[in-house]
């Protein structure tokens, strides 16, 4: 049993949207999680200027 043409188009649209969200959201998510965790003991504090330097 195959998918109808409309279902294939919707599935393709969902997959493209997921790719776009992953593409533009991966690095900001990793940075956010790193800032939330904080620095390991003995390491300098994580700040935005440290990220840019």
From TrEMBL:
This is Mitochondrial import receptor subunit TOM7 homolog. Keywords: Membrane, Mitochondrion, Mitochondrion outer membrane, Protein transport, Transmembrane, Transmembrane helix, Transport. Pfam families: Tom7 (PF08038). One of its GO terms (cellular component) is mitochondrial outer membrane translocase complex. It is found in: Mitochondrion outer membrane. One of its GO terms (biological process) is positive regulation of protein targeting to mitochondrion. InterPro entries: Tom7. Belongs to the Tom7 family. It comes from the Eukaryota. The keyword Protein transport applies. It is a single-pass membrane protein.
């Amino acid at each position: 049993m195959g998918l109808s043409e409309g279902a294939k188009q919707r599935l393709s649209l969902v997959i493209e949207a997921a790719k776009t969200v992953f593409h533009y959201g991966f690095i900001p998510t990793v940075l956010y999680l790193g800032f939330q965790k904080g620095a390991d003991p003995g390491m300098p504090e994580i700040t935005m200027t440290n990220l840019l330097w």
